[in-house]
Amino acid sequence: MAGLRRLVLDVLKPLKDPSIVDVALELSRIDGVEAVNITVNEVDVETLSLTVVVEGDNIDFERVRTILEEVGAAIHSIDQVVAGERLVEIPRRLRE
Protein backbone atom coordinates (compact mmCIF):
# COMPACT_ATOMS: atom_id res chain seq x y z
CA MET A 1 0.00 0.00 0.00
CA ALA A 2 1.39 3.40 -0.97
CA GLY A 3 1.36 6.04 1.70
CA LEU A 4 3.47 8.85 3.08
CA ARG A 5 7.16 8.21 2.43
CA ARG A 6 8.79 11.45 3.63
CA LEU A 7 7.84 14.36 5.84
CA VAL A 8 10.02 17.45 6.28
CA LEU A 9 8.79 19.52 9.19
CA ASP A 10 9.82 22.89 10.62
CA VAL A 11 9.49 22.35 14.37
CA LEU A 12 9.97 24.51 17.46
CA LYS A 13 10.87 22.56 20.62
CA PRO A 14 11.53 23.80 24.15
CA LEU A 15 15.22 23.64 25.09
CA LYS A 16 14.38 21.49 28.11
CA ASP A 17 14.15 17.70 28.03
CA PRO A 18 13.67 15.47 26.21
CA SER A 19 16.77 15.77 24.07
CA ILE A 20 16.57 15.64 20.29
CA VAL A 21 18.18 12.19 20.54
CA ASP A 22 15.24 10.98 22.62
CA VAL A 23 12.74 12.62 20.25
CA ALA A 24 14.39 10.97 17.22
CA LEU A 25 14.35 7.56 18.91
CA GLU A 26 10.67 7.95 19.85
CA LEU A 27 9.73 8.96 16.29
CA SER A 28 11.72 6.02 14.89
CA ARG A 29 9.51 3.61 16.86
CA ILE A 30 6.41 4.57 14.85
CA ASP A 31 5.22 1.77 12.57
CA GLY A 32 6.31 2.47 9.01
CA VAL A 33 9.15 4.82 9.98
CA GLU A 34 12.53 3.69 8.66
CA ALA A 35 14.68 6.75 9.41
CA VAL A 36 14.56 10.04 11.31
CA ASN A 37 16.89 13.03 10.95
CA ILE A 38 16.65 16.00 13.31
CA THR A 39 18.78 19.03 12.52
CA VAL A 40 19.12 22.03 14.85
CA ASN A 41 18.79 25.24 12.83
CA GLU A 42 18.80 27.75 15.66
CA VAL A 43 19.15 27.83 19.44
CA ASP A 44 17.27 30.53 21.32
CA VAL A 45 17.16 31.21 25.06
CA GLU A 46 14.32 28.74 25.63
CA THR A 47 13.75 26.98 22.30
CA LEU A 48 15.32 24.96 19.51
CA SER A 49 14.34 25.52 15.88
CA LEU A 50 14.51 22.12 14.18
CA THR A 51 14.13 20.50 10.80
CA VAL A 52 12.64 17.04 11.34
CA VAL A 53 12.82 14.59 8.44
CA VAL A 54 10.90 11.32 8.74
CA GLU A 55 11.21 8.67 6.02
CA GLY A 56 9.59 5.29 5.66
CA ASP A 57 6.66 3.50 4.12
CA ASN A 58 3.13 4.55 5.05
CA ILE A 59 4.14 7.02 7.80
CA ASP A 60 1.35 7.87 10.24
CA PHE A 61 1.43 11.70 10.23
CA GLU A 62 -1.02 11.99 13.11
CA ARG A 63 1.23 9.78 15.27
CA VAL A 64 4.25 11.93 14.35
CA ARG A 65 2.29 15.06 15.31
CA THR A 66 1.13 13.48 18.59
CA ILE A 67 4.66 12.51 19.64
CA LEU A 68 5.97 15.99 18.87
CA GLU A 69 3.14 17.57 20.86
CA GLU A 70 3.80 15.21 23.79
CA VAL A 71 7.38 16.53 24.04
CA GLY A 72 6.12 20.12 23.94
CA ALA A 73 7.10 20.77 20.33
CA ALA A 74 5.02 22.61 17.75
CA ILE A 75 4.99 22.05 14.00
CA HIS A 76 5.42 25.48 12.39
CA SER A 77 5.14 24.22 8.84
CA ILE A 78 5.14 21.13 6.69
CA ASP A 79 7.92 21.89 4.22
CA GLN A 80 7.84 18.71 2.14
CA VAL A 81 5.62 15.68 1.74
CA VAL A 82 6.37 12.70 -0.49
CA ALA A 83 3.75 10.00 -1.00
CA GLY A 84 3.36 7.03 -3.30
CA GLU A 85 5.31 3.97 -4.33
CA ARG A 86 8.72 5.66 -4.34
CA LEU A 87 10.57 8.79 -3.23
CA VAL A 88 10.54 11.69 -5.66
CA GLU A 89 13.32 14.26 -5.41
CA ILE A 90 13.00 17.90 -6.44
CA PRO A 91 14.80 18.40 -9.77
CA ARG A 92 18.09 20.24 -9.27
CA ARG A 93 17.12 23.15 -11.55
CA LEU A 94 14.06 23.86 -9.39
CA ARG A 95 16.14 23.98 -6.19
CA GLU A 96 18.49 26.68 -7.48
TrEMBL record:
InterPro entries: DUF211, MTH889-like_dom_sf. It comes from the Archaea. Gene3D superfamilies: MTH889-like domain. Pfam families: DUF211 (PF02680). This is DUF211 domain-containing protein. It comes from Pyrodictium delaneyi.
